[in-house]
Design a protein that fits this description.
This protein has about 200 residues and is of the alpha/beta class. The protein has 8 helices and 7 strands, in the order αβαβαβαββαβααβα. β1, α2 and β2 form a beta-alpha-beta unit. It is elongated. About 15% of the residues are buried.
């Protein structure tokens, strides 16, 4: 997820940690993506233990300067504890995402974006779809049910969707933008409203 950004930033050395499945295997898609990016140092480790290894090193793993990437609540706490020994990207809370989709949106893409956030699976994620088309909402929901069957974390993802998913039909694209800005303002932890950067809604070209 962050290896591409590190490449663009010119980072001279990139180390990737990724967890395995129950059989001890890493996703072939992840390995293929790492190969295409030219990543040569990959460790089959995940979770809080990966953060500890990255921060302090082990007998086989050298410590790094900075740690970037997503994780669950345990990973976030591990980052908090090693901060100061090593740089970290952030200490984020549960994921919250809102997708605005008009009638031109591709339902499979929208569904994939929504599920990518719900898949974190802590149970506290909030996933929202705002669309100007009821037909698009219906298609996205159908696509989400289809894609959900392909996820390795389907059970946890479904629990998130049952507790924290909302789909809204807006009368216009401007109303969808107003909804997004309103949600952003009440979610801002510092207490003051901040409008989302969605002022330019014109289609390219």
């Amino acid at each position: 997820m962050t290896a591409t950004l590190a490449k663009l930033a010119g980072c001279p050395e990139i180390v990737v940690f990724t967890p395995s499945n129950a059989d001890g295997k890493v996703s072939p898609a992840v390995l293929a993506a790492l190969h295409l990016l030219g990543i040569e140092e990959v460790y089959r480790v995940g979770g809080a233990q990966a953060i500890g290894a990255l921060a302090f090193g082990t007998t086989t793993i050298a410590p790094v300067d900075k740690i970037f990437g997503p994780g669950n609540a345990y990973v976030c706490e591990a980052k908090r504890q090693v901060f100061g020994f090593v740089g970290v990207d952030s200490l984020p809370g549960p994921s919250e995402v809102m997708v605005i989709a008009d009638e031109t949106a591709k339902p499979s893409f929208v569904a994939a974006d929504l599920l990518a956030q719900a898949e974190h699976g802590t149970g506290r994620e909030k996933v929202c779809l705002v669309s100007t088309s009821g037909a698009v909402i219906a298609s996205v929901l159908t696509e989400m049910r289809t894609q959900l069957q392909l996820l390795g974390r389907a059970e946890k993802t479904l629990r998130v969707l049952e507790q924290g998913f909302l789909a809204l039909e807006a009368k216009s694209l401007q109303q969808a933008i107003d909804i997004a800005n309103y949600v952003a303002s009440i979610k801002k932890s510092t207490g003051y409203p901040v409008a989302l950067s969605v002022q330019n809604t014109k289609k390219p070209g």
